[in-house]
Write a structure and sequence with these properties.
globular, 11 strands, Aldehyde Dehydrogenase, Chain A, domain 1, 293 residues
């Protein structure tokens, strides 16, 4: 009997609720040592443009959804991740995590999936509560009420860190969605498979088309286009290299997008689920209202 021949999966992009191949026709192998584990579509500049257009088209409807409804959808994502627990664990484990220079405690793939689900549930809970924490009733002189209320920023580019591949992605993506923004995720680094599997989760989680768009790519190739894209309103990244962070911040001078690059984040830290992770992706509106005399 001949040895069994494994047919390797080619993970597609996730754009506007569908799974297209890259318009460039390119793919990239994912290797663990000398062994090819899978193939992934390699997103191009045109794919980025398509993803941003999809995110922009979905932005108004997602922002107008009730906070309670957004929380329900995020919770549904967590439920579907629970159903894909084994697949997600295998995706995290298929490529060994890069060696860390810090003394942070390493977690198993199964533990990383558990923490990712818990973190998504946490931000699902924040969806209808963060406005009370970030907004306020301002003390003013005169017969007026003065309120500060929050509004979503718009389209946010999420730049995933090299590790941990799933927990890092969820920690950066969930606060963006919780606030009512749409997202374009650039998943690169040594293991983008968990991000590709998350696209399959979104497709079965009542997430409206265009709200989450996931591009597996060579990050260095697309960062300069993210930085200069006028229809991307904000950027959220963490633990990026100094050159990558510089490229993203350079775009601010030309198009005034908000760039949040978190340095040296320990994603296991419980502080990663606080409302301060949502604050950079909301705009503050002040409303005056006459007070009855």
């Amino acid at each position: 009997m001949p040895d069994r021949l494994d047919v390797l999966k080619t993970y597609k992009l996730f754009i506007n609720g569908a799974f297209p191949r890259s318009e460039s026709g390119r793919s990239m192998p994912l290797c663990a040592g000398k062994r090819v584990m899978a193939h992934l579509c390699k997103a191009s500049r045109k794919d980025l443009r398509d993803a941003v257009e999809a995110a922009r088209a979905a932005a108004d409807k997602w922002a107008a959804a009730t906070a309670y409804n957004r929380g329900q959808i995020l919770y549904r994502m967590a439920e579907m991740m629970e159903g894909k627990r084994r697949e997600l664990s295998e995706a995290v484990a298929c490529v060994p995590a890069p060696a860390s220079k810090s003394r942070r405690r390493a977690v198993s793939p199964e533990d990383e999936v558990t923490r990712s689900i818990d973190r998504l549930i946490c931000f699902a809970g924040w969806a209808d509560k963060y406005a009370q924490v970030l907004g306020c009733n301002n003390p003013v002189s005169g017969p007026f009420y003065n309120f500060t209320i929050t509004e979503p920023t718009g389209v946010v580019a999420v730049i995933t860190p090299d590790a941990p591949p799933l927990l890092g992605l969820i920690t950066l993506l969930a606060p963006v969605l919780s606030a009512g923004n749409t997202a374009v995720v650039l998943a690169g680094g040594p293991n983008p498979i968990p991000a590709a599997v998350l696209g399959e989760v979104c497709a079965t989680s009542d997430v409206p088309a265009g709200v989450v768009n996931i591009l597996t790519c060579d990050r260095a190739e697309l960062l300069k286009f993210v930085s200069g894209h006028r229809d991307i309103d904000a950027v959220h990244g963490a633990n990026l290299s100094a050159p990558d962070a510089t490229i993203l911040r350079e775009g601010v001078a030309e198009n005034i997008k908000r760039v949040t690059i978190r340095a040296d984040v320990n994603f296991i830290d419980a502080d990663c689920d606080s409302a301060r992770w949502i604050e950079p992706f909301v705009e503050m509106k002040t409303v005056w209202h006459p007070a009855s005399v």
